[in-house]
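Backbone-to-sequence.
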């Protein structure tokens, strides 16, 4: 089958080849024929080494497809079912799962660092990003990694729900619990940032400021729910004009940089919530004084995978889309083929692309 391989961190080009195979399906596994997969900034972070993964690797974690084979112990899905790939399967047995935080479960994530499900060039093993590797025609995942979705949901829409939408909307609804009438600032208007904006809109926020240095993204930010837009150098002025200088109730950072985390902190009012959604580098440190942490009374929150239980939230987000509450189609900037992935990655590096979606035949 066809797949895109990353051989070394820093490679400019993916190795797109057609001699890739999969290891056999185990008793608790599901084999999925990928129908659509997103090109997410986290994929680029793996390619650049910001997010460490074992190599060689098939990138891709945001996907949807059709079940073609299930293991003997699998009862949740069957061949022919449409599924969304869940890149953080919950084991339901660890302390995080028991505490109602399945998005923090690392059981299968840790396993993915030692379990190479792909083979290429004969018998050379390759890993899948977070145990998935959706930049391939087919993948094998634990049954918890394939969540059934209604067959009338387009695969491109389902793929976006697999990561970007769940991460962004979940950050607003699950992590921050944005209140009706609240004011919100969102720094970073890529696919996840736009999803945060939509989550804030659905939650009833009355002022939603979208902040991005690329003015080309401002129009779409308004379309999906932002009431105001600005560039980073205009943020201080916007805080004054939109909040009277008090600051926003919620400040979302969706870039993954210490500098933008500090910008979100400064734009948030005393007692407000600063929510970190972007995936940053391990050596990029955020510096806050102990005095500031205490006396400004702000809550610094992280939102991993939108704080979601995907078994609940995937269907919830599908229903919001069906009800016209989420605009997912507008967020797809282009539909491409697997052979075009190197061009798509180049566009992602440039910052202009929102969500490019690979569509398989």
């Amino acid at each position: 089958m066809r797949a895109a391989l990353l051989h070394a961190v820093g490679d400019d080009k993916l190795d797109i080849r057609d001699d890739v195979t999969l290891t056999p399906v185990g008793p608790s596994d599901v084999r999925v024929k990928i129908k659509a997969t997103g090109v997410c900034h986290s994929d680029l972070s793996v390619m650049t080494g910001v997010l460490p993964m074992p190599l060689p690797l098939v990138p891709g974690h945001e996907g949807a497809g059709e079940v073609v084979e299930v293991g003997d112990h699998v009862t949740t899905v069957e061949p022919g079912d449409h599924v969304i790939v869940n890149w953080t399967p919950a084991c339901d047995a660890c302390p995080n799962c028991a505490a109602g935080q399945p998005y923090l479960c690392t059981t299968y994530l840790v396993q993915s660092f030692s379990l190479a499900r792909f083979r290429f060039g004969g018998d050379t093993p390759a890993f899948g990003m977070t145990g998935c590797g959706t930049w391939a025609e087919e993948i094998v995942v634990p049954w918890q990694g394939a969540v059934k979705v209604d067959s009338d949901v387009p695969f491109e829409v389902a793929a976006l729900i697999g990561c970007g939408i769940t991460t962004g909307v979940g950050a607003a609804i699950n992590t921050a619990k944005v209140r009706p009438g609240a004011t919100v600032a969102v720094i970073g208007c890529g696919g996840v940032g736009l999803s945060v904006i939509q989550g804030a809109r659905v939650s009833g926020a009355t002022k939603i400021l979208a902040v991005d240095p690329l003015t080309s993204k401002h129009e779409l930010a308004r379309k999906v729910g932002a009431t105001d837009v600005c560039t980073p150098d205009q943020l201080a002025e916007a805080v004054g004009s939109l909040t009277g200088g008090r600051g926003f109730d919620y400040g979302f950072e969706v870039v993954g940089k210490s500098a933008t985390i500090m910008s979100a902190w400064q734009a948030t009012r005393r007692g407000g919530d600063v929510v970190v959604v972007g995936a940053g580098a391990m050596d990029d440190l955020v510096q806050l004084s102990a005095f500031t942490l205490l006396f400004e009374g702000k809550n610094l929150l992280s939102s991993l995978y939108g704080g979601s239980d995907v078994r609940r939230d995937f269907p919830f987000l599908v229903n919001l889309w069906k009800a016209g509450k989420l605009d997912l189609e507008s967020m797809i900037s282009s539909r491409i083929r697997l052979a075009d992935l190197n061009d798509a990655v180049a566009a992602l590096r440039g910052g202009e692309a929102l969500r490019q979606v690979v569509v398989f035949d």
